[in-house]
Amino acid sequence: MPPLLTKRSVLSQFAKLYDPLGLLTPFTLKTKLLMRSIIVEINEGHSRGWDDPISDTLYSEAKNLFREMFEIENICFSRCVRPADVIKDPELIIFCDSSIKAYGAVAYVRWEKQDGNYYVNLLCSKNRIAPMKQISIPRLELCAAVLASRLRATVEINMRYKFSKVIHITDSEIVRAQIQKESHQFNSFVGIRVAEIQSKTEPIEWFWVSSKENNADLTTRKCNPRELDTESVWQKGPEFLYQDSSEWPVKQSTVSDLPDVVFARVALNEGEINSSSQVIDIQRFSNMKRLLSVMARIISAIKKKSFKAILCDPSTEEIQQAELYFVKNAQASLPQDWEKRYRRLGPVSREDGIVTVGSRMSKWLKDNWDQNQFILLPSKHPFSLIYLSHIHQKDHSGVESSLARAQVKYWILGARKTMKSIRKQCVVCRRIDKICTSQAMGELPKERLEPCPPWHNVSLDLFGPFWVCDTVKRRVKRKIFGVIFNCMVTKAVHLDISEGYDTQNFLTVLKRFTCLRGFPKKLYSDNGTQLVSANKELREMVTQWNKGLVFNFGKFEGLTWVFNKSADAPWENACSESLIRLVKRSLTRIIGESVISFGELQSVMYEVANMLNERPIGFKPGENFTEGTVLRPNDLLLGRSTIEAPCGFWNERVNFNKSYAFKMKIVDLFWNKWMKNYFPTLIVRQKWHVNVRSVMKGDIVLVNDQNALRGEWKLAQVVEGMQGRDGKTRDVVLRYKINKFGNRYLGEPDKLMTRSVHKLVVILPVEEQ
């Protein structure tokens, strides 16, 4: 023994004891108690840390423990092996006990031999130190019973033996009586532990034995290693285990007076249940059947004067009484002059005080199988709401169909309005109807409202594909895509085609446009990852572009790229999308289904672009010739409305002032017509006129993707809302999960996507969650 022992060295020595089965539990209890004393010294400030020496009192105790640890090497443990002459499966017997210092459990295996004798052997054990905050012995005994039930579960899982019987033995009559009771009868501490014991064991498996016959007592008090040898009571078990079970000194009696019982009394009697008494809060229920079932159990408990009646299933008569109670409670809120106010319905009070309507057609009511009268219910009472909700949830049908079923028994005032509200708030109906949300049309960007040179603000989009044939080998075909450039102010159109699918071919088209029209200030387009509703090959073409080359093109010339926020929202790039429809219609009229060469198709594209630039924009003068001709994009691009050669008388003398004045007059004339005929058309909202609730963070939505299978809409949650200049949310960021194998979720991280609110169905707003 060293003359100086630190707390760390003591812990190091005790850590060498490796006892996973708990064969040395009576001895290791000493080490646990000593270590707790050391920790108490540190917590109370008597020692600064683990490297300080222990006190003299603890030094002598540790010295004795170290000497006993050397004796452990001389202890032999008999292995728990099945004997050769057994006649049936073994029995598992578990003892549990507690003391002020600790509580524990020990398990034994018992075989019956052919000669009528029994073989018993130690299997495993477990103990724990009692809490620092002292609790009563019955509660410690209950903690020991919990430890025994957990030990039993561990043994049954890990042992290859199939036990014919499992027996739990305790020396606490209180604990055994508590296990035989229902857990809800006790307070939280006892109730939770009794419930756990009953979930792992059966109450009939528990027996009581006197303390001197309880082997688990060794797990709760200090023991010398010499008392744990092969032939000790610890390894072989108590003597009564070697006798027939009918001769065991055990019993299953119970105690009537138990601690920690929650005393409750029935506060109401049968006569106190009337229309004015509030026994339960209806607004806490959302299910009609559950509401009636709870009230029926309360009525049963009041009749039988015992809470035990709550555990019994209610009868049909009790459920009818519960419904009658809620009807009376609802009719108590009717106005005092109900006979005068509802005289058109023919109200009558029955003998039991229930107000009914329909006296005008009493003859017809008596001649059918339904009933004689309709029970009158107010519109805003919680019982009326939960009843209408119950009727609607049967098949989630329309308002009229649900009302027809509700009026078989009750006549609810203002039922149609209430049913509309219920159906509007129904999550199932939202998923079935799939009505996408909307929002008022947003403000136009200033780029479309301020006069500026042509091609100053341009909208870009791709469309197609188109089939073209080779110039030499006419049978060889390949796909190309169209590119449309649209001036956002003058509505002028420039069409071109991309010969290949790669980045360089697209940049070639863009260079051709800038050489002819000049670099725009802003170029609006869809982002490549947002081409959801486009052709599959077009999506692959755009998503495989070198984004750095494309986005950096024209940076030094003052070009700025602006991308739409959401995918699958063509109205956000409406300048180009509406013109693509006109382009496709014109191409169908010109070439039909013919396959032409690349050069021929490019000529057709130029011809179509000119046709679109000759189209009238804005208001049409009509028959009023004083308004002048209609406004066309060519009026600004060419100075004339068509590509025909201009005719007229021209001043052939060289005069730069007159030439400049003439050009400025043409430009001024275009913008005057633009302000008069085209600008007023931008004021009117073509659709989405009403302001509605903005989609908020946390809303649960269905996503209407055009490329998804029919009927399979993604379920997603709103992560972020993007507000426009007017504060309205029209684009949101969503998160959703991918299930690659049907409904199985394999723990993949959430995916994010941006969508317009017009593609969403809000099924569960955040305020309803």
From the structure above, extract its key features.
6-stranded mixed β-sheet, 769 residues
| First-residue to last-residue Cα separation | 67 Å
Record the strand order, biggest sheet: 3-2-1-4-5-6
Return the average pLDDT rounded to an integer.
80
- Write down how many β-strands occur, each being a DSSP E stretch of 2 or more residues: 21
Number of helices: 22
Please state roughly what percent of the residues sit in beta strands, choosing from under 5%, 5-15%, 15-25%, 25-35%, 35-45% or over 45%.
15-25%
Describe the structure.
With 769 residues, this protein is of the alpha/beta class. It is 34% helix and 17% strand. It has 22 helices and 21 strands. It has a 6-stranded mixed sheet. Strands 11, 12, 13, 14, 15 and 16 form a 6-stranded mixed sheet that branches. Strand 12 and strand 13 form a beta hairpin. Helix 2 runs antiparallel to helix 3, helix 4 runs parallel beside helix 6 and helix 12 packs across helix 13. It is elongated, with a radius of gyration of 44 Å. The two termini are 67 Å apart. The relative contact order is 0.05.
